Amino acid sequence: MIYRLVVLLLITAIVGAVGAGVLLLGVDRLCRPDEVCIREWLSATSGWAAAIVALPTILYLSRQVRDADRHQKTSFALQVRRHEILATRTRDIACLAIALLDPYLRNVPEGRAPDIRDVDKETVEEIVHHLRDTTISTFEGEIANPMVMTAYATSVIIEKGYNGDDRAAFAAPDLAKSFFENIAKQAESYLSEMKAITESG
Hints:
By secondary structure, the protein is mostly helical. The chain has 2 domains: 2-70, no CATH class; 78-200.
């Protein structure tokens, strides 16, 4: 609405200036008798008139660009917020799982490899539950750098080792702890990077 008003005022000003010139100076002083005066004046003002008419479009497009930029920043902020929540939850789950495994791993006699079959059933079930949590799988899919083994694959190895189905999987406590330490480190790294980006921008 304001753009139309501005254009209308500019056109009125130009027409008024030409009309005032004709009234004050007379047609004889503005045009020679052998010229087609109106055509010359219209030709001279057509460029300015086109610029004035284009002004609302330019202003409208610039407003659309600003709105698109604001929308992009809002979308980015929402995505960053979502990923920050995801990384925080992943880090917390990983720290909890490490806290579950640490007492057991500290009590393994020196010179003996940890054996998943020595871990109580509730702890194994909770570790498997955390490995299969959608939070960790979403973090793996959206943020984390690819790891050698996914959370789900780690949970399968733990189950196989605990059930005695795979002798190679008996050392699953070390594997699980290594997985949780890695994913906690990646989550913490992501949170630090996002903090640096949002504070600088």
